[in-house]
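HOLO CASE FILE
Compound: magnesium ion
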Amino acid sequence: MNIHEYQAKELLRKYGVATPRGQVAADAAEAAAITESFGGQSVVKAQIHAGGRGKGGGVKFAKTPAEAAELFGRMMGMNLVTKQTGPEGRVVRTVFVSDPVDIARELYFSFLVDRATGRVTALASTEGGVEIEEVAAATPEKIVKVAVDPAIGLAEHHARELAFALGLSGDTFRKGVVFFRNLYKLFVEKDCSMLEINPLVVTKQGDVTALDAKIAFDDNALFRHPEVQAFRDLNEEAAAEIDASKFGLNFIKLDGSIGCMVNGAGLAMATMDIIQYHGSSPANFLDVGGGASEEAVKNAFRIILQDPGVKAVLVNIFGGIMRCDIVANGVVKAAREIGVQVPVVVRLEGTNVEEGKRILSESGLRIQVGADLDDAARKVVAAIA
Ligand code: ADP
Ligand code: MG
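Model generated. Tokens follow.
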């Protein structure tokens, strides 16, 4: 789960990580009032779950309270297109007004979970304010990496190594060390999967502060963080994924043509691989899980069919706990209720498979049955060729 910049900054403050003052404005008058309280100037920032806002027109400097009010009016409700939103953009529903900072240097700092080492890893670079992927491609030597030992946490000498790599000195160095250690504490205690401060700014006064903050959380640990769950903004999530989560289903939108209904993440991966192998690509996959009800299967099928990218559907179920007759009934009911305009291929195996196949063949619906996974994948790809 991702959160907005202003929410991330609330967490930073709780952990003693320096960040400029700032407040969400409900309307233009409040944007002006907040700006007034900062001494008459502010930075007005659109809140969407995507970066690159500065270049896209979502971060603007206001020289007066009146200008902040005007910027609020322009930003609120606008469709903000950035490099990270894709061409369709995102509607701005929240506007944050921040205290302007006198920037001396823009740096980069993040924590992420490195799968190769299995450790939380800090990345630091003197090249802040630009996308780290660009730095990694052009000047990889400018990124310093430190893997953290989970038993020890971010050790003092590691924090110092990072501060040194960023060229901090004197009092600023000491502030950097405190900043990184507090940030690490937040990362671990809140079960983050990624925490990026870009830019991390050294001010003309010699302070270290987080001008921007992006945090992603491990969804599997959200249950123990109700305060983080409260930050969830459904407007920023794909409608179909929310719809699926209501029925305990996992839906993932992709950009190919074949909708996939499967049970189990491993089977989903195998299904997508074999579709690619036969020359097409998945439009999505929906994992109905282990013991889904007929109602859940029906909704799963509906959600897949409502995806405009879907040109054909492959249902691939290996019924262990899941019963094939329940899947067949769910598919048939969904098909009858909403109508199916695209070819559907089903591969069923396992518990009650004969009953499942009988239900499909007697349904009168044009559903092809695959003899095995390979045959089913071949048929579904051929159906849209
Ligand atoms: P994004 O990463 O989405 O473009 P940022 O929050 O990083 O948005 O802002 C983009 C740029 O705007 C920053 O690199 C910085 O130069 C400037 N900026 C943002 N907030 C402030 C602030 N409070 N004071 C001064 N400059 C700011
Ligand atoms: Mg940024």
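CASE NOTES: Residues 21-100 form a domain with the Dna Ligase; domain 1 fold (CATH 3.30.1490.20). Residues 20, 43, 51-54, 59, 98-101, 103, 106, 129, 199, 211-212 surround adenosine-5'-diphosphate (ligand 1) (CB under 6 Å).
CLOSED: yes
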